[in-house]
């Protein structure tokens, strides 16, 4: 309690109030009693002046001897600590008490009497503040008469005001001393009462401090009597309510943070001064931010923050698509944030990586354009041949037969295109089933040799097979045949007449070295070096036109052809079908090609293990 600020303030106020009250009391007493003391002094001096005047008259009539007269006058003067002075009408003077040894005083006093005839006209005179020779006196006078009633002079009784006030100063001193002595005793009762009154506040102050520091479990003592008990109950009720509100806010904030942190889209919020208020990990990952203290460290693109500033200034929603230097497309929506009073308090932006969506949209547009083109070409050719036939503009049978053959080829091309598109559609919708079984690789390649023999003979192309014996793969027999036909047909198609195509199959313990060689493309980018182990590799190599390095990474896209002049009659779907079949089987397609020197297409197959894969034997 000694350290209580309230207690110290009370003591200070009490002491100051007591001191001021004492000072005011003494001052008031001095001011009010001064005039009254002077009046009282005049009342004391007036009888002395009258008595001395009577004694003087009796002395002049020889009724009182001189020694007795002087003795009585001095006794009366000493009784009131004053001077007695007689001034006759002739302005001669004499003292009947202690003499004032000051000629200037006598002269000034006589001049004062001479200024007014009241002293010899019978009027009564007294003064509380008679200024003579620079000093103030209290003075009263009485006339001296003879037997005929003639005024012979005046008896003046004077006393200096300083002597009168000396008693007053002494009285004031006694009052102050008494007040100072009684002050400690007078403060004991109030201070003890204050201590008892303030004692309950110690608990309330302690609880208030605990609550301000976040400890909402602290409780005030509600058993305190009086107003402090009411305050304690109010504090406990307020603490419970605040505790519940804080708990709810914390839960909501934690849930909101978890929701924001779990979003795959980036979120950033700034205040009206442009300072970052909130952001989530997705936004940091999107722009590679690590330590964030400013908004530029979070998103190092000033153009984006200019949109935020524009939204704050215009108070409107803005949407942009921002393309980064690394080719990504970021879709951004920025809108304002409002407080409870509907005032703008900041802006929030939603960042969505739309690179894949934009790529898919471009692919969709390109797919529609390609498929329209692929269908239009054979249909235009067929229409161009049917019109002259229908109008009987073809005279000879030989020309007609040639037209029919061309239309038959175009119809076959349409049929293949539709078949390939249906195959891709089934692969993408997982509607195409796969049946794994042991496949003898040597037998499969012998069947391939028979199927491609006719097309190879037409172009005088030599097809060579080199197969490691006793190779068995766990794969889908029909789908493997489809992939091999696509790759060998492409090899023969893009090899000049008289060229050579080599087909080989062998077991590779580790072929990860292929991934690091130049002019190499892989159909499945997730196929890393850890997967390049213990596989059967079937390679199809030609010495044809090859593939330019700039086109190598795109050859697996649908409808993509290196050059229309070099790929006449191609739908651009074969490699895409082969890629998706192999990916569905968990395999990959590796291409190594140099323009004008030829290409090598390699497919991976999982080796059949009778012990591990015994479930596929039946």
**Coarse shape:** rod-shaped
Largest sheet properties: 6 strands, mixed
Looking at the overall shape, the CATH architecture of the largest domain is 2-Layer Sandwich
How many E strands? Answer: 18
How many angstroms does the end-to-end distance come to? 95 Å
- SS content category: alpha+beta
Give the oligomer, counting copies of the same chain as homo and different chains as hetero. single chain
User: How many structural domains does the protein architecture include?
Assistant: 4
Give the % helix. 40-55%
Strand order of the largest sheet: 12-14-16-18-17-15
CATH topology of the largest domain: Heat Shock Protein 90
- Fourth CATH level, the homologous superfamily of the largest domain: Histidine kinase-like ATPase, C-terminal domain
Q: What radius of gyration results from the CA coordinates? A: 64 Å
What is the CATH class of the largest domain?
A: Alpha Beta
Low-confidence stretches: none
Mean pLDDT: 80
Number of helices: 14
Strand content: 15-25%
Describe this structure in words.
With 618 residues, this protein is of the alpha+beta class. It has four domains: 5-168, Beta-Lactamase; 263-351, 2-Layer Sandwich (Beta-Lactamase), CATH 3.30.450.20; 358-426, Helix Hairpins, CATH 1.10.287; 433-616, Heat Shock Protein 90 (2-Layer Sandwich), CATH 3.30.565.10. It is built from 14 helices and 18 strands. The protein has helices at residues 5-60, 66-79, 103-114, 161-212, 227-262, 281-287, 295-298, 302-314, 355-390, 397-428, 441-458, 477-493, 549-552, 574-584, and strands spanning 83-88, 93-95, 125-132, 135-145, 151-160, 266-271, 276-279, 318-323, 329-338, 344-353, 436-440, 462-467, 472-476, 500-510, 520-522, 533-542, 589-594, 598-606. The strands form four sheets. The protein has a six-stranded mixed sheet. Strands 2-1-5-4-3 form a five-stranded antiparallel sheet. It has a five-stranded antiparallel sheet with strand order 7-6-10-9-8, sandwiched between helices. The longest helix is centred in the first third of the chain and has 56 residues, at 5-60. The radius of gyration is 64 Å and the shape is rod-shaped. 23% of the residues are buried.
